[in-house]
Amino acid sequence: MSTKRKIQEDIDVCEKEINQNEIVLFNDDVNTFDHVIDSLIEICDHTLEQAEQCALLVHYKGKCTVKTGEYNDLKPRCTRLLTKGLSAEII
Hints:
- The chain is α+β, with helices and mostly antiparallel strands.
- The chain has one domain (about 20-90): CATH 3.30.1390.10.
- About 45% of the residues lie in helices and about 20% in strands.
- The chain has helices at about 35-45, 50-60, 70-85, and strands spanning about 20-25, 65-70, 85-90.
- Helix 1 (about 35-45) packs across helix 2 (about 50-60) and helix 1 packs antiparallel against helix 3 (about 70-85).
- It starts with 20 loop residues before the first strand and ends with a strand.
- The relative contact order is 0.25.
- The model has no long low-confidence stretch (mean pLDDT about 90).
- This is ATP-dependent Clp protease adaptor ClpS.
- Keywords: Hydrolase, Protease.
- Pfam families: ClpS.
- One of its GO terms (molecular function) is peptidase activity.
């Protein structure tokens, strides 16, 4: 009977830590589904299907994360959503 020896090596892995933030879109009684969908496609680079799903989630759940990324990328997008009359914030 032979014995096999197992060797375990420690490997250091360097990973760049990136702080991920989210743009959260909130429901309101003012904007139409079409306006929300068009805005998400234009500003957040959503597909039609993504934008429709987010609009439905916002409507029924009250809020939805519509974009995730670094703060510097999200800030101008959130500002554009706000200028279109949508209720959004970065968290």
